[in-house]
Amino acid sequence: MTWAYAAPIGLLLISNVFMTFAWYGQLKFPGTSLWLVIPISWGIAFFEYCLAVPANRIGYTVYTAAQLKTMQEVITLAVFAVFSVTYLGESFKWNHLAAFGCLVLAAYFSFNKWD
User: Fold this and answer.
1) How far apart are CA 80 and CA 24, in angstroms?
2) 62: Cβ–Cβ under 8 A, 6 or more apart, which residues?
3) Tell me: the pLDDT tens digits for 31-47?
4) Which of 27, 61, 66, 81 is the most buried if burial means most Cβ atoms within 10 Å?
């Protein structure tokens, strides 16, 4: 696997960790004021963008935009599943697995050549 194929996957994985914390990390601190949570979340999201933008730019040399978006969604759900169980203490249920399966099917259709 060449660098252009692997780099977007790694960069999107790391960027999704940042974005998941930016969006959902504050849920563990419900008493914290929004005026404080919002700039902290934006600060975390800055690092997500520093990784996601190059991931998409590099990835677009070997993947289509639809493939990149599908890949990002699969990575997002996988990262969120781990985050919600380990950080938020939520349980992973069958419907979460079903949703993940639907995204895997979306990836299959996105990456398969039907010509």
Assistant:
1) 9
2) 2, 4, 5
3) 999 999 999 999 999 99
4) 81
Q: What is the residue extent of each domain of the chain? A: 3-111
Q: What is the pLDDT of residue 89?
A: 93
Dihedral class, residue 91 (left if φ above 0, else alpha if ψ from -120 to 50, else beta): beta
């969006």: which residue's tokens?
23
- The 8-class DSSP code of residue 63 comes to S
Helices 65-86 + 94-111 axis angle, to 10: 160
Residue 28: predicted pLDDT: 93
Backbone angles phi, psi at 35, to 5 degrees: -60, -20
- Higher-confidence residue of 102 and 52: namely 52
Instruction: Cite the DSSP H helix spans in 1-115.
Output: 3-24, 34-59, 65-86, 94-111
Place of tokens 């099917």: 105
